[in-house]
Specification:
mainly beta; three-stranded mixed β-sheet; 8 strands; 10% helix; 26% strand; NOV_C; Protein NO VEIN C-terminal domain-containing protein
């Protein structure tokens, strides 16, 4: 973990996770961890995505973790949305179709053709007379 001690604008970097730590208490401890996500357009056009390390940090730091979402970041009318403890405040998580690659999926159901039983009616292979609800001929 690398720390750039720049006073109120220190940056802690751990792999792909970087947190700005603008506020410290009288003992020098960080009291606010901030993850910044910026986008060139409006927030309605995209998502603010946390990587696994960022998600874990949000869980670990709880109320001290803040997500800052900056929309229209490259314009004069940018807007910053500050969200405290986003993981703790979420009431659901959404999973898009990208999860298919890691999911266990059922094989597609293949219907087998019915077979004639010699009495002019048909039965599904593998079903006994009891499974179909009719008594077996004795």
């Amino acid at each position: 973990m690398a720390i750039n001690k720049g006073g109120q604008n220190s940056v802690i970097t751990d792999g792909q996770f970087s947190v700005v730590t603008p506020t410290r208490d009288s003992d020098g401890r960080v009291v606010r961890y901030i993850e910044v996500k910026s986008m060139s357009g409006p927030w309605t056009d995209t998502y603010a995505v946390l990587s696994r390390p960022q998600f874990e940090a949000a869980r670990k730091f709880g109320e001290a973790f803040w997500l800052y979402v900056v929309e229209r970041a490259q314009t004069d009318d940018f807007r910053i949305h500050r969200i405290q403890n986003p993981i703790g405040r979420a009431n659901h998580f959404m999973f898009d179709d990208g999860w298919r690659v890691t999911a266990e999926s059922d094989e597609p159901m293949v219907e087998e053709p019915e077979e004639e039983n010699g009495k002019g009616d048909f039965k599904q292979p593998g079903l006994s007379e009891m499974d179909r609800g009719t008594p077996a001929a004795g």
